[in-house]
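Form 7-S
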Amino acid sequence: MPEHVRAAIERDKIAGKTSKKDQAKKRRAHRQQRKAKDDDAIDGPPLPRTVLTIPEFCRMHGISDAYYYKLKKEGLGPREMRLTVHGKETAEDKRQTGRIRITLEAAADWRKEREQSGAQS
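Output:
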């Protein structure tokens, strides 16, 4: 290492300056401490899930994805909740099933409707 570089490093150490790498380490450690503190702020057991994705809904009810979409097309599917970011919904968002959720209440209502329609037949 050249002498002038070594001297600059020594000056920075004496002056209390830290390298960008050390600064990044400190920021990372601080973020981890904040995250741990935020995690500790929630007391009690973990919160229960309140929504399902389409694949989860299908597994829960023993139907295929294709049958789900067939029911939906016929107007017999469950109520869906579409998640957007600040109302910026694009055509691509509409095609992504990962952004659609079904609440547990909507799933229960759907089951009741299916039972009632089966009883009337």
